[in-house]
């Protein structure tokens, strides 16, 4: 892991999320895009026993944009789980939580 968080790119956080989803959850981390809609979460995680969630990946210290908050809130209002991760540690913590579901 890079010692200086400012050197971590969003892609690195996203790659770790994908790898941990596959190895720990035995699931799939689909790259999620929605043509004609911007600001949807980056990944759709699906793992055994009818589990899924949406995850937005960011660089360390970054947070939701207003448009992303709007989509997040709509998804949550429909009962979906939506998370944000911005560091390797946040990815690891999220995976541990999802393993308990």
Structure, described:
The protein is of the alpha+beta class. It has one domain: Trna Endonuclease, Chain: A, domain 1 (3-Layer(aba) Sandwich), CATH 3.40.1350.10. The chain is 39% helix and 20% strand. It has a four-stranded mixed beta sheet with strand order 1-2-3-4. α2 links the parallel β3 and β4. The longest helix is centred in the first third of the chain and has 15 residues, at 10-24. The mean pLDDT is 94.
Explain the layout of strands and helices.
Blueprint: H1 10-24, E1 28-31, E2 43-47, E3 51-57, H2 66-77, E4 82-85, H3 88-99
What would the keywords be for this entry?
four-stranded mixed sheet; 101 residues; single chain; 3 helices; alpha+beta; Trna Endonuclease, Chain: A, domain 1; globular
Distance between the termini: 27 Å
| Overall residue-averaged pLDDT value | 94
Note the main sheet. 4 strands, mixed
CATH architecture: 3-Layer(aba) Sandwich
**Helix/strand structural class:** alpha+beta
Order of helices and strands: HEEEHEH
Tell me the total number of β-strands: 4
Count the DSSP helices. Answer: 3
- Low-pLDDT runs of 5+ residues are none
| Assembly form of the protein | single chain
Main β-sheet, spatial strand arrangement? 1-2-3-4
Shape label: globular
- Under CATH at level 1, the class stands as Alpha Beta
Number of domains: 1
The CATH topology annotation reads as Trna Endonuclease, Chain: A, domain 1
Q: What helical percentage do the residues reach?
A: 25-40%
Q: Supply Rg.
A: 13 Å
Strand content: 15-25%
């Amino acid at each position: 892991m890079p010692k200086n968080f400012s050197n971590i790119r969003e892609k690195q956080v996203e790659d770790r999320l994908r790898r941990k989803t596959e190895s720990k959850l035995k699931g799939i981390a689909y790259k999620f895009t929605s043509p004609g809609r911007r600001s949807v979460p980056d990944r759709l995680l699906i793992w055994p026993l009818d589990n899924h969630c949406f995850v937005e990946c960011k660089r360390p210290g970054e947070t939701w944009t207003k448009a992303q908050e709007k989509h997040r809130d709509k998804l949550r209002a429909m009962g979906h789980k939506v998370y944000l991760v911005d560091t390797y540690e946040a990815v690891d913590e999220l995976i541990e939580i999802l393993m308990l579901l």
